[in-house]
Amino acid sequence: MESNISYKTVSEISGPLMVVEGVTGVGYDELVEVTIPGESRPRTGKVLDVHMDKAVVQMFEPNQGVQTEGTKARFTGRIQEMPLSTKVLGRVFSGGGKVIDGGPELIPETTRPIAGAPINPYSRAFPNDFIHTGISSIDVMNTLVRGQKLPIFSGSGLPHAKFAAQIARQSKVQSGEDFAIVFATMGVPFEEAEYFRLQFEETGAIERTVLFVNTAADPVVERIATPRLALTTAEYLAFEHNMHVLVILTDMTNYCEALREVSSARKEVPGRRGYPGYMYTDLASLYERAGRVKGKEGTITQIPILTMPDDDKTHPVPDLTGYITEGQFVLSRDLHTKGIFPPVDVQGSLSRLWSAGVGEGKTRGDHSSLKDQLFASYATGREVRELAVVLGEASLTESDKAHLVFAERFEKEFINQGHHNDRDVSTDSLDLGWKLLADLPVSSLKRLKAELIEKHLPKKEVVAEEEKVAEEK
To answer: Which of 210, 274, 389, 470 is the most buried (most CB within 10 A)?
Structure first.
């Protein structure tokens, strides 16, 4: 129930925070309308902390030039909510949840508090279904599974924006199932936010996408609400309308910087590198909203994107994210320098649930064995590449030279596929993997069973027999 009491007891304004004294009956996260002298429209904020008769209000708009004298604060008795209906698909919202695509205002079927809650572990169902992204380095080597949370670790200057847009454009589940994308930007440059919007519109993917846009010019405090608005929308589509939803959040490093800025304004004791000590809990409250729920058809799969300062994996943001999520995709600066896109470091990347998404009826029966052999052969090829730098190619054996060529071809043909090449995992990506293995000696294909070699590499059996005869002689 909304209150009609306006407090004129604003005692302090510090950055995005405002302290109101003498309040009663105020709750955490409650929305506040602040009237500034000379302004016709009230500004909005929310209660961040309550102690005795003092309330700390976090404003959604900058406080520059605002004076304590004459400023009024009215506590509404409501918390921030997201208006929802199936008509959110195809719409563009601000980071605060307002329609900004020039279309009509959304007529909601319901509203949901954006705070949400992590899924109860007892109610969770294990993720076990394949999501097609059309990207070989993901679909074959680090398979994405419905209900998984799998971040992208990037760095300054790497093409994570184009990579994320490609995943969003190409992702799909089995035919006949409803699939939606919820895409949220936080603190990105205007050009990058506009790039995402245009990509979705030009390819028609906007029809199944809900886009939340918070740019670097938007309020820092709004940035903290943006991922929660996106996840609340995803939960509604997944668990109320049985849709399979892919949530992409970029950039989580900017989100954590916003947390640090607000924490500093509150004069909290800083943790590692100045970030608040509760950042792990805060990130977990977002990441753990992905998953499957028993008795529900819909799923939420989450791909947070973060840029690692100085490509440092031990930085608090990637470090804490890695503890919570089920692996990561890592973008390689070396591959990017070679002109390879997407520059996914398949050895540095990991999907802990990949085995649940592959096999007959999901991808193909030979997927698991082929993936293991590609990993092993590529790792050998990279070791040989380093050896050749030290000792020279003249010191390499024929097998070493074959693996060196394989590593080069694997990067240029398998990992590299351009911005608009959507590969089918069964007919394109897996077959390409077998094609690359055909040039390696059969003695090095130790991760493959004989029947698989005979089926997919029939000429290898002939070579193997010739090798055996030569050894006997």
So the answer is: 210
